[in-house]
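Could you help me review a protein record that somebody else here produced? This is what I was given.
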Amino acid sequence: MITAEELDRMRSRLSGQIAGQQLYVYESVTSTNDVLREKLAEGAPNGTVVAAFTQTAGRGRKGRRFQSLKNKGLYFSLLLRPSCSPDQLSTITPRAAVAVCEAIEWGTDIRPAIKWPNDLVCDGRKLCGILTEAMPDPNTGELCVIVGIGINLYQTEEDFGPELAPIAVSLAGLTKRVLPTEASLLEFVLRSLDPLAAEFPAGHARVLESYRSHCLNPGREVRLVSEDGEQTAVCLRVNDDFSLLLQYPDGSTHSVVSGEVSVRGIYGYV
């Protein structure tokens, strides 16, 4: 729970950066992405953040439900108004994943891995999900991006329940150390995300290097689910544009920019 005093102090400390220059914290929302979309229609500036203690309709990719138990996780969304070409927008999601990884490493003894393109994983289980949605500003037509982030903080196996416990984990479940407060962790993440709001698409090379060091896909067998069906391949590397280079059983290679990629040994893929 972030107190009013913590919120005021955080706003003061973040006053010199873009990410979090406007920061709204709610007790409960349908989803932080939905509320931020409303703020966008009201003219919210680049870097606006909406956070909540719980989401009643949190969602992930392909409309999947994202469990958002009250006071158990950190749920927030960041508005970006990027000045870039449309083909560069696809790099926002992996760059956000790197920012969250690095923030967690600053604040804890935990080093998450990234399952391409956007899930943070520890011990083969999901720690954080990121949902990126692009849309036009309804007032100006300017292309905007909302980055929704949900980090599991305090959930136990009982909280996750039998369906999610085998594939999800929280920071508290990974360490015996005292975790940073929700306010501190949110501040760490917003500081790490600030270059994405303030400088994108600059800084590509550094973020790509960090992404490659965190990504667990290369060298592993993966299963690609796309409109063409399912295929099994080996991931060779993360390309310069954050796509994956896959090698199929017949020796052919292909770069993947979208689709569901399951990694052997992760989320029950055996």
